[in-house]
C-alpha cells in the first residue's frame, strides 16, 4: 500500500513538473520478474485483444515502442550494448508473439507453449546481461582505483627519489627508500630507508635535520626528524610539510566518553596526531611561564577529565580559583540546562579556592587513599592485583593543583604544610587511584629537584611560547636531545613527553569559555559518583563541598566566562551572588536558599555522596531538612525565577523584570511569571508588597514582617 502511494506520488511528481515520459522505461526488473512481467503482459494483451478484435498490428507497434523506450533509457544510464540489445529484443519478441497470437488465437497449445519458451528465453538472457553489467561495473571501479594508486605511487616514487638525492647532497650517504607513507592528517610524510653498508647510522641523518629542512625549503616550524628503523641498518625520516603548531586549533568538538585507562588527549603533535596521556599510575607536571598558555592548557586537561566516565576532578587554585571556576559557575548559577531540561552538574567535582578548602580537600584525598587500601582488600584479592581497579563505580580522583609545584617549594610555613599534603597524596595514593596534575610557572631546579615529582610525575609538559627564562628542557626531559625552546614560539605550544611517547613538540588545543560550558553540559550525566567507601572516608568535608558558605567566594569573582551573568544589580540577567552574601547568615536565609538550590541540583539530582552528618534542624549551619520541605520548582526557568526573586532582596521585583531576565535563555513570558508569582504568594514562598503600580514581590525570607518558620 505504501509502495502504491509512493508510486502515485512519483508519477504525480513527474506529471507536475511536466517533463519526461509517464512510463518509466528505466524501472528495474530482475531476470525472473522481468520475464514474468513480459510474458504475462503479452498474454493479457493477446487474450483481451483477441476477444475485443483489436487490430493485431497495435501489439507490434507497442513492442517496437517498448524496444525504443528501453534503448533510450538504457543509453542514458550507459548500459552495455549487450544489455540494450537483450532488452530491445525482449520487447520485439513479446510484441511479435502478441501480434501472432491475436491473429491465430492465444488459447492454443502452440501459442501457450511458445509463450512459455519465450519467457524462459527472456529470463535467461536477462540474467546473463545482469551478470555482464555487474562485472562491467566492478571492472570500472577497479580501473579507477588502479588509476588513483598509480598516481599515488608516482607521487611517492617522486618523493623517494627527491629525498635520496637530498640526503646524498646534505649528509653524503646514499640511502635506499623502501617505503613512503603519506600522513592521514595531510601534515607530512614518513620515509622508511635502508642505510648504506659501511656502518652509517640513523644519527648521521638526525644530526643534519636543520640542513635537510633548509635544503627542502620547508616552511618555518616544519622539521625533518630521523629515528631508528626496524633494525640498526634502517632509518625512519619524518618530514612535516605543514606547520600545525602555528595554527590555532580549537578543542575537538567530539566529546565522546573517555577513560583514564585508555588515555586522555592533551594536544597534538607536529604531524597533527593526538597525544594521549595515561594517568592511571602517573602524575603530571605542566610547566609554563605567564602568558605561555598554561591556563588554557589546564582547561584542555579539565576538558579531558570531564569527558571520562571514571575520573572525578578535584581542583586547587589558590589564585582565586580561576582554573576551575569556568567549570563550576555556569552549572551552579543554574544558567546551564541539559537538552532534557535537567540541571547540569559542574565539570569538576570539587573546587578549592582558599587555603582552608585546599587543606580539607587534601586531607580527604589522603583519607580516601588510606581507607580504600583496607576497604577494598577483597576486591584486590579477587582481581589478583595490588592496583585498585578503577571504574565508573570506583572512580579515580585527579587532583589538579594550579601552581602546585610552587606550593611544594614555598618557604612559607602554611604553604609548606599544604605542600607536604600534596606530596603525601603523590606518595601513598598511586595504587588506590588518586593522582595529581601540578602546574608550575618555571621548570626550575627547585621544582624538579624534588625526588617525588621526578619519580612519580613522568607525564611532563613544557609550554614555552617562545619564553626561554626558567625553561630548562634538559631537566624536564632528561635524555631527550635536540629540543630547543625556539622551535615552539607559539602560545599553547611546547614539548610533551610521557613514558609512552618521547618528549617532542606539541600544541594544546585552544578552548574558550563557551566550549567549556558546552563540554560541561555535554558530559554532565556521565560523571561518576564517588564510591560509598571513599565518600565515607572523605566525610562531611566532601559531602558539604557545595554548601553556601564554602562556595560563596565563587560569586565574588568577576564574571569572565560570559557576558550575561553579571554579578551586580538585582533583578538583572543572572544570579546576584554577592548581593546574597551581604546578608547575615541565618537559617532560611538567602544563602541557605542558594545552598538548597546547589544541593538540590547536585546531590539530589545526581545522587552524589550521602551526607554523613545531616545538620541539626535549626542549628547554626544549614537547615536543609526544613528547606527541603519547600515546594519543588518544576523547571530550570522557574528555579531561575525564584533565584531572581531571592536576589532582588528586600526591594523585591516584578513579573516584567523577571520575564525580561529569563526571556533570552528560557523564552519565559510575563504571563507565565505572573502565574508562578501567584502560586508562590499562595504557598507562602513569596510575599506581595506595595499596591498598584508599586506592587512588588519579595521572597518570604526578605519580607518585612516575616512569619515565624515552623
Ligand atoms: N593553545 C593555544 N592556541 C592558540 N592560542 C593560545 C593557546 N593557548 C593560549 N593561547 C593564547 O595565549 C593567551 C594567554 O593564554 P593563557 O591565559 O592560557 O596563558 P597563561 O600562561 O595562563 O597566562 P597568564 O598566567 O598570564 O594567565 C590566550 O589569551 C590566547 O590568546
UniProtKB/TrEMBL annotation:
Binding locations of ATP: 288-295
Superkingdom per UniProt: Bacteria
Alphabetized SUPFAM superfamilies for the sequence: P-loop containing nucleoside triphosphate hydrolases
InterPro entries xref list: FtsK_dom (IPR002543), P-loop_NTPase (IPR027417)
Domain FtsK: 272-472
Keywords: ATP-binding, Nucleotide-binding
Name of this chain's protein: FtsK domain-containing protein
The organism of origin for this protein: Streptomyces griseoruber
Amino acid at each position: 500500500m505504501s509502495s502504491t502511494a509512493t508510486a502515485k506520488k512519483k508519477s504525480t511528481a513527474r506529471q507536475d513538473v511536466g517533463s519526461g515520459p509517464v512510463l518509466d522505461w528505466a524501472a528495474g526488473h530482475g531476470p525472473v520478474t522481468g520475464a514474468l512481467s513480459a510474458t504475462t503482459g503479452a498474454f493479457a494483451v493477446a487474450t483481451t485483444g483477441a476477444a475485443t478484435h483489436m487490430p493485431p498490428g497495435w501489439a507490434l507497434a507497442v513492442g517496437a515502442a517498448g524496444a525504443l523506450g528501453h534503448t533510450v533509457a538504457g543509453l542514458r544510464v550507459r548500459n552495455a550494448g549487450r544489455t540494450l540489445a537483450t532488452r530491445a529484443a525482449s520487447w520485439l519478441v513479446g510484441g511479435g508473439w502478441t501480434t501472432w497470437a491475436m491473429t491465430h488465437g492465444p488459447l492454443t497449445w502452440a501459442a501457450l507453449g511458445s509463450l512459455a519458451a519465450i519467457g524462459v528465453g527472456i529470463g535467461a538472457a536477462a540474467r546473463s546481461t545482469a551478470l555482464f553489467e555487474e562485472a562491467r561495473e566492478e571492472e570500472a571501479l577497479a580501473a579507477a582505483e588502479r588509476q588513483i594508486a598509480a598516481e599515488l605511487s608516482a607521487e611517492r616514487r617522486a618523493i623517494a627519489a627527491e629525498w635520496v638525492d637530498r640526503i646524498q647532497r646534505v649528509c653524503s650517504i646514499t640511502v635506499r627508500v623502501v617505503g613512503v607513507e603519506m600522513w592521514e592528517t595531510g601534515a607530512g610524510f614518513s620515509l622508511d630507508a635502508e642505510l648504506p653498508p659501511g656502518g652509517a647510522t640513523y644519527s648521521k641523518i638526525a644530526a643534519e635535520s636543520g640542513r635537510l629542512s633548509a635544503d627542502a625549503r620547508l616552511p618555518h616550524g616544519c622539521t625533518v626528524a630521523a629515528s631508528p628503523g626496524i633494525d640498526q641498518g634502517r632509518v625512519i625520516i619524518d618530514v612535516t610539510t605543514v606547520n600545525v603548531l602555528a595554527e590555532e586549533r580549537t578543542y575537538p568538538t567530539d566529546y565522546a566518553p573517555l577513560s583514564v585507562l585508555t588515555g586522555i588527549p592533551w594536544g597534538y603533535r607536529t604531524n597533527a596526531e593526538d597525544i594521549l596521556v595515561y594517568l592511571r599510575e602517573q602524575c603530571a607536571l605542566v610547566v609554563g611561564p605567564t602568558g605561555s598558555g598554561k591556563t588554557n592548557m589546564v582547561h584542555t586537561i579539565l576538558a579531558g577529565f570531564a569527558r571520562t566516565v571514571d575520573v572525578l576532578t578535584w581542583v586547587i587554585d589558590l589564585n582565586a580559583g580561576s582554573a576551575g571556576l569556568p567549570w563550576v559557575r555556569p552549572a551552579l548559577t543554574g544558567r546551564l540546562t541539559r537538552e532534557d531540561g535537567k540541571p547540569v552538574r559542574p565539570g569538576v567535582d570539587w573546587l578549592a579556592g582558599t587555603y582552608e578548602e585546599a587543606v580539607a580537600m587534601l586531607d580527604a584525598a589522603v583519607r580516601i587513599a588510606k581507607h580504600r587500601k583496607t576497604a577494598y582488600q577483597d576486591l584486590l584479592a579477587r582481581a589478583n592485583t595490588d592496583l585498585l581497579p578503577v571504574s565508573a563505580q570506583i572512580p579515580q580522583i585527579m587532583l589538579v593543583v594550579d601552581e602546585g609545584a610552587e606550593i611544594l617549594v614555598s618557604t612559607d610555613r602554611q604553604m609548606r604544610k599544604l605542600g607536604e599534603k600534596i606530596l603525601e597524596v603523590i606518595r601513598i595514593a598511586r595504587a588506590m587511584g588518586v593522582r595529581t596534575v601540578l602546574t608550575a610557572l618555571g621548570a626550575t631546579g627547585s621544582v624538579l629537584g624534588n625526588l617525588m615529582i621526578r619519580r612519580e610525575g613522568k607525564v611532563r609538559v613544557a609550554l614555552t611560547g617562545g619564553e626561554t627564562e626558567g625553561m630548562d628542557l634538559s631537566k624536564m626531559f632528561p635524555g631527550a636531545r635536540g629540543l630547543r625552546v625556539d622551535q615552539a614560539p607559539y602560545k599553547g605550544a611546547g614539548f610533551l613527553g610521557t613514558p609512552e611517547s618521547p618528549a617532542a613538540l606539541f600544541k594544546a588545543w585552544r578552548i574558550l569559555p563557551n566550549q567549556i560550558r558546552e563540554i560541561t553540559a555535554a558530559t554532565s550525566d556521565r560523571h561518576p559518583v564517588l564510591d560509598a567507601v571513599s565518600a565515607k572516608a572523605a566525610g562531611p568535608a566532601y559531602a558539604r563541598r557545595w554548601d553556601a558558605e564554602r562556595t560563596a567566594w565563587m560569586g565574588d569573582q568577576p564574571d569572565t566566562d560570559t557576558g550575561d551573568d553579571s554579578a551586580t544589580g538585582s533583578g538583572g540577567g543572572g544570579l546576584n551572588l554577592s548581593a546574597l552574601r551581604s546578608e547575615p547568615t541565618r537559617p532560611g536565609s538567602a544563602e541557605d536558599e542558594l545552598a538548597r538550590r546547589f544541593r538540590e541540583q547536585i546531590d539530589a539530582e545526581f545522587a552524589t555522596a550521602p551526607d554523613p552528618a545531616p545538620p541539626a534542624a535549626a542549628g547554626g549551619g544549614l537547615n536543609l531538612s526544613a528547606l527541603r520541605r519547600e515546594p519543588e520548582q518544576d523547571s530550570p526557568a522557574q528555579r531561575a525565577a525564584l533565584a531572581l526573586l531571592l536576589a532582588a532582596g528586600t526591594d523585591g521585583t516584578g513579573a516584567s523584570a523577571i520575564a525580561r531576565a529569563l526571556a533570552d535563555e528560557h523564552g519565559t513570558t510575563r504571563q507565565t511569571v505572573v502565574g508562578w508569582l501567584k502560586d508562590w504568594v499562595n504557598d507562602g514562598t513569596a510575599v506581595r508588597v506595595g499596591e498598584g503600580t508599586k506592587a512588588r514581590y519579595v521572597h518570604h525570607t526578605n519580607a518585612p514582617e516575616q512569619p515565624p518558620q515552623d
